[in-house]
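User: I'm new to structure prediction. If I give you an amino acid sequence, what do you actually give back? Let's try with this one:
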Amino acid sequence: MGAMYRVLGKKGRITIPFEIRKRVGFSYNDVLSFTEQDNRTVVVKREKICDDCKVRERREDDEISLLEFLNSLTPAEQHAALIHLSVKWAEDQAQGKWQEAHEEGAGGKNGS
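Assistant: Good question. You get back a string of structure tokens that encode the predicted 3D arrangement of the chain. For your 112 residues, that looks like this:
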């Protein structure tokens, strides 16, 4: 995989690219450690902080419901998702896409 670039934010925050998180198995609420190897390299590792944790590790092929996903988000992330979906819905409705999709889901214009 080629280089991926992200901008370091004002508060030192950065988003680990989805492709990398998926490949190495990072997930929400994981504890990560950062180790400096030299002047330009930092190693990031997922750490196990307890042996008796009751949380089941999620495998890549596990399915998650929409409700579980939404509940895993922080309140700020839930708010951002709501705004994004509301704007998308309004844009689609303005273009007539919502009506078309609604009719298709209901079995066509006549409901058959």
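You can read the tokens as a compact description of the fold. Here is one thing that stands out. The longest strand covers residues 31-38.
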